[in-house]
Amino acid sequence: MPLCYSVGGLNVTVTNAVDLAQVFINPGTTCSLEFVRAYASQAANATSAQQTIALRQQATAFPTLTGQTPRKLRTGDPISQIVSGTAGAAGTSGINASVAGAGTKTEILDDNFNVLNGWLWVPTPKETVVGNAGSSTGIGVYFPVAPTTLTSWSVGMHYQEL
């Protein structure tokens, strides 16, 4: 059974169009990561508004992040091979980038959602995104356009170590 983890944040304040959650794969790791869920929602706004969101792959130079330690989704699993990091280095995870980083960015999935409803991506098995071991890129949730209300965002990504 794959090992399952979550990286995310609650009540995040964004400052611009930023990376909300990033999980980078260390080229030296022994496992690949399969991303099986991503979500974003906002608790401070009672006004209907559309928001653009995307899943994105990024190569160096990575964003500057607030480090976030992956949480186990199954209590019996060992700690993740991915660790908290602020520099977007391979093998680290973080949220809420203060600097997006100048690395090559490739959109994987573009979407829109109403902020009153939130956004949830739960792919079928054929649509999951896999970051292969030895890759020098990271996968993240991204707002291509800054949201109207910048406060009280919750965001996360769930992944399995394969």
Uncertain residue segments: none
Mean pLDDT over the residues: 89
Q: Per DSSP, what share of the residues sits in E-state strands of 2 or more residues?
A: over 45%
Total strand segments = 13
Described by the principal axes of the CA atoms, the overall outline is globular
Note the main sheet: 7 strands, mixed
**Can you tell me the CATH class?**
Mainly Beta
Classification by helices and strands: mainly beta
Number of domains: 1
Description of the molecule:
The protein is mainly β and 162 residues long. It has a single domain (3-161), classed as Jelly Rolls (Sandwich), CATH 2.60.120. Helices cover 0% and strands 51% of the residues. The chain is built from no helices and 13 strands. The protein has strands at 3-12, 19-24, 33-42, 50-59, 64-67, 71-72, 83-84, 92-99, 105-114, 119-121, 129-131, 137-142, 153-161. Strands 2, 4, 5, 7, 8, 9 and 12 form a 7-stranded mixed beta sheet that branches. Strands 1, 3, 6, 10, 11 and 13 form a 6-stranded antiparallel beta sheet that branches. The N and C termini lie close together (9 Å).
